[in-house]
Amino acid sequence: MAALVSSRAFLRSTRSAAGPAKLAIASASAAAALARPAFGCSLASSFRWYASSGSSNDASLRKTALYDLHLQHGGKMVPFGGFHMPVQYSGLSVSASHHFTREKASLFDVGHMVQRHFTGPGAAAFLEALTPSGIEALEVHRSTLSTFLWANSSGGIVDDTVITRLGPQHFYVVTNAACRDKDDAYLAHWLADEKLRDRLPGAVHHEELAGWGLVALQGPLAKDILAECLADGEAADLPNLFFGGSLYARLRLPASTTAPLEELELSSPLLISRAGYTGEDGFEISIPPEETVAVTEALLATAGPERLQFAGLGARDSLRLEAGMCLYGHDLDDTTSPVEAGLSWIIPKARRNDFSFNGAETILEQLRPKSQGGVGVTRRRVGLVVDGAPAREGAEIVEAGESGAVIGRITSGCPSPTLGKNIAMGYIKDGLHKSGTEVGVVVRGKTRRAVVTKMPFVPAKYWKGQ
């Protein structure tokens, strides 16, 4: 996710009514070899990594529909998830872009994410077999964060995902760009699995929205900007569109790229979700390929640069870390279970005695602590505030005091522009995960004082009504 994602911030619901392109998936024979994780996702977790990722002219990299628009706005392009993606723009530093998002609004291109359809009478049961979530109970136009799981003793996460129900037999699923090949093979394996198919009440069909755009409008001014862009009469529903919900609406667009804004036409109905990866109120909009540039330009022109700016991967990373959200390949991976990752809340009560999903025997036992006869976990994901230099991925977490025993590792870390402190996320020995616990973090060979801190570091501002 994202992909994306920790805290209870999920959402990535999208898609319009236009026809999707079918996803070409691996053959059943090739997919059947997937007995366990064969490879992982490689994603960046800090601006320092983005800036040193090498040339963005690699011919193998793909481009989103907004590539040329990024260049026009001074975007610095870097490789990310198999795409050319903007890390920042010439007009704003990463820190300034971060603050602009928190104070006004920013527009993020997330068109590199993989947008998928699952349809048919077996779709809900299929998704419940691969995830621990309550898909059958999900209401239409509601979304949930979830995780695809390996069918082995680790209870490990294949990828984190957001699942949106668009109809009784219609689901929209967003997965991480850098996990595309792994996810495609994983899904192909289970779509071809005869034992699973025999359990389903009917057929399930899998498609990808190839080439579609996905933009995230984030920040306190996002609702006002979107309302101004919506067709007459369609903004009235926004106050009742709460975090985790979605609706279809049309946006007003210039008749051409050179036409004045007064000469408008309407977009096709776009699926607009109240969602995001920043901790701010905001929306994610899925857009057909032929309309992606026009919709994006309409948002920017309607708001004006004093209210809305493009933002890149650098600001997106510091914003999501302040919001306590995980990044797959760093804070989540093939060996980490949802319970270890602090994502037990994605498992509803109705599924906590249901051993039919992948990894259930491990995960459900982990939900019960040892004191109650369960297995529990040996490590937990925590937030940390670190003194001195910022702690980066891989830094050791050690016990405070003379022993200095290693008790965990940092998975993400950066200076927080909002707080003016160094924040980090990592895994620590169970029992030492309580807020306020003092530990050490080894940064550049020196042990720095750190304090386990409740996440999110910055309070979320999701719209849930008055």
UniProtKB/TrEMBL annotation:
Location(s), subcellular: Mitochondrion
Protein name as annotated: Aminomethyltransferase
Keyword tags: Aminotransferase, Mitochondrion, Transferase, Transit peptide
Enzyme Commission no: 2.1.2.10
Reaction equation(s) it catalyzes: N(6)-[(R)-S(8)-aminomethyldihydrolipoyl]-L-lysyl-[protein] + (6S)-5,6,7,8-tetrahydrofolate = N(6)-[(R)-dihydrolipoyl]-L-lysyl-[protein] + (6R)-5,10-methylene-5,6,7,8-tetrahydrofolate + NH4(+)
Assembly and oligomerization: The glycine cleavage system is composed of four proteins: P, T, L and H.
InterPro entries for this protein: GcvT (IPR006223), GcvT/YgfZ/DmdA (IPR028896), GcvT/YgfZ_C (IPR029043), GcvT_C (IPR013977), GCVT_N (IPR006222), TrmE/GcvT-like (IPR027266)
Encoding gene per record: GCV1
